[in-house]
Write a structure and sequence with these properties.
2 domains; globular; 12 helices; TIM Barrel
């Protein structure tokens, strides 16, 4: 009996997160955690850690491909990375970004491209940038069975229109449009919406005005959840220092030190040693 009592309690297996789960979490006041992944190992670590949402973001254009913007990322590239990530995901909700110009031409092409993502990757949902101008696309996608996450505020695919990565929604007119867009996305059937780099006060208003969850990135603490680019919060990206990113590690520095130590050991014939040889 004593032996049984000394054994740690068995942990219950975590249930698969669904779009309905996120809505329930908002209703119950449970915050949603989200991060990005583009490869198998990172996705595995995130899923095992208990993350709620994994986004295969078109931010891979920046952190994986080394491009200045996300605009060059193709649909085939998104599908390639999403297929790899899916192999590692057991419980997190897997969302995939639709890249620039893959859902803008017409409804038929939007459905075809989103359908490809869902069928070829096994993802749970797609994410589209924009509000009023894509509401009809969202409505149509949901109608055919494709769950959609929205994205408002600073939308990186529109950077050439914005001309800068400055905070959006500081102007009263733009703030009103963001609030309107959030309502339109909800009415179109979106299950959640990302709010990027907008004033915390505006994000609070949007969050309280809609029934679907808001997931913030640089939008204050009162969103229903938070998302960051994993490479940023791990300190892997050294050229990017927005105030909304909290670095939980400094992998860039740690990695470079490890590489230097390896090089030194190889040069000095300290690697491999006898125990590391056959």
């Amino acid at each position: 009996m004593a032996d049984e009592q000394s054994q740690p309690a068995k942990t219950h297996e975590r249930k698969k997160i669904t779009t309905k789960t996120l809505v329930t979490m908002k209703r119950n006041g449970v915050k949603i955690s989200a991060l990005t992944a583009y490869d198998f190992l990172m996705a595995r670590y995130l899923d095992e850690a208990g993350i709620d949402v994994i986004l295969v973001g078109d931010s891979l254009g920046n952190v994986i491909q080394g491009n200045a913007t996300t605009l060059t990322v193709t649909l085939d590239e998104m599908i390639y990375h999403a297929k790899i990530v899916k192999k590692a995901v057991r419980t997190a909700l897997l969302v995939v970004d639709l890249p620039f110009m893959s859902y803008h031409v017409d409804l038929k092409e939007a459905v075809r491209n989103c359908g490809r993502v869902m069928k070829e990757t096994g993802a749970d949902a797609v994410k589209l940038e924009g509000g009023e101008r894509i509401a009809e696309v969202v409505k149509h996608l949901v109608k055919v069975g494709i769950p959609v996450m929205g994205h408002l505020g600073l939308t990186p695919q529109s950077i050439n229109i914005f001309g800068t990565y400055v905070t959006r929604g500081t102007d009263p007119k733009e703030a009103r449009q963001i609030q309107k867009d959030a309502k339109l996305l909800e009415e179109a059937g979106a299950f959640a919406v990302v709010l990027e780099k907008i004033p915390a006060s505006l994000a609070t208003k949007v969050t309280s005005s809609i029934r679907i969850p808001t997931i913030g990135i640089g939008a204050g603490i009162h969103c229903d959840g938070q998302i960051l680019v994993t490479h940023d919060m791990l300190g892997m990206t050294e050229m990017f220092h927005p105030r909304f990113v909290r670095k939980y590690l400094n992998i860039a520095e740690q990695s470079k030190n490890a590489f230097k130590n390896y090089i030194k050991d190889v040069k000095n014939q300290k690697f491999p040693n006898k125990s590391e040889s056959y």
